Amino acid sequence: MVNETEIKEEIKRLTAKGLAGGCLARPLSDAAALTLRINRLKKEKKAVICAHVYQTPDIICGIGDFVGDSYKLADDSRKTDAEVIVFCGVNFMGETAKILNPGKKVYVPSKNAGCSLSESITAADVRALKAGHPGAPVVTYINTSAGVKAESDCIVTSANAEKILRKMYASHEKVIFIPDKLMGANLSFTLGKTPGRDMILWRGTCVVHEKFDARTIEIYRKRYPGLAALAHAECPSDIISAVDFMGGTGDMMRYIGNTNASAYLLVTECGFGEFARIKFPEKNFIAMCRLCPYMKSITLESVLDALENPRPELEITVPPKVAARAKTSIEKMFELAA
Ligand code: 13P
Ligand code: SF4
């Protein structure tokens, strides 16, 4: 258990990390009691925490050892010598970490951390697409199951999809890009390709990013001269044509760091805006955001529970044969993204 003095010290540590001033949905002392216990258990169990930027600030700043987008976290997971990885993100991220680290225990501290993109397509669907388009390489967004990755030639994330697709098109006229039809349409536009002919798409969408309304961007542009609008590449094309920058969360964070706009309008999941405010306290943000129900199924309490009581239903397992094939397509991404 933790005592009053320890909680006071932890409150100071969390405050120094930017977690004071109303960015938490609970008193800082309550968060501190939990982060203290989680960080102790991490040491005892030789565990690290990977935290995606859509997690809540108490997770990102209070207990995260690795923080970032899905590419960075996959890469970080390969570099740790911890015995246990607790993934504060969604299942496909935990699966990717497990595939890259078969000897480590990987836990996702929620049974509800799915993803609408990942759930939109099965391995059998990919086999049918390949049969319908023989010779076309399958380039697969990382937001997919291990079984789908196993049927793919190369995995991409929003941080490297454009670069890897350019390399694929250097030797192929047609590419199968799955499962995000909106990201696929955005990338085909950027690359000058025709969806359905040069780029075969699937029908998946992200439940968070598909629902933004482009009219709001124009309203805010009038209100804030000098505004920079940024959108995640999973947004529909009318949003992408209305913003100044499209990319993954890592690219969006770098764009904010490298520019000096009067304000930043962020068209993505809300956790990104909360973290951006902490990272860049001197900048102005308007979060035109939506919450991801899958990402937000993880809390400090559920992380503590997973560490105290690590049980099979929270552990990520991937059948070895599937994992071996999926690993090949993930490693292809690291090679082509380099
Ligand atoms: P990033 O890799 O850009 O962080 O995206 C992950 C995701 O799930 C976006 O919805
Ligand atoms: Fe999946 Fe969308 Fe949530 Fe990202 S924001 S995890 S793509 S549902």
Question: What's this, in brief?
Answer:
With 338 residues, the protein is an alpha/beta fold. Helices cover 46% and strands 14% of the residues.
Describe the structure.
Helix 1 crosses helix 2, helix 2 (28-44) runs parallel beside helix 14 and helix 4 (70-79) runs parallel beside helix 5 (91-100). The strands form 3 sheets. The chain has a 4-stranded parallel β-sheet with strand order 2-1-3-4, with helices on both faces. A 4-stranded parallel β-sheet has the order 6-5-7-8, with helices on both faces. Strands 10-9-11-12 form a 4-stranded parallel β-sheet, sandwiched between helices. Strand 9 (227-232), helix 11 and strand 10 (245-247) form a beta-alpha-beta unit. It has 3 domains: 4-113 and 296-314, Rossmann fold (3-Layer(aba) Sandwich); 118-206, NadA-like (Rossmann fold, 3-Layer(aba) Sandwich), CATH 3.40.50.10800; 214-291, NadA-like (Rossmann fold, 3-Layer(aba) Sandwich), CATH 3.40.50.10800. It is 46% helix and 14% strand. The longest helix is centred in the C-terminal third of the chain and has 18 residues, at 320-337. The protein has helices at 4-16, 28-44, 57-62, 70-79, 91-100, 123-132, 146-150, 161-169, 181-191, 214-223, 237-242, 249-258, 270-279, 300-308, 320-337; strands at 47-52, 66-68, 84-88, 105-107, 138-141, 154-156, 175-178, 199-201, 227-232, 245-247, 263-267, 285-287. It is α/β, with parallel strands linked by helices and 338 residues long.
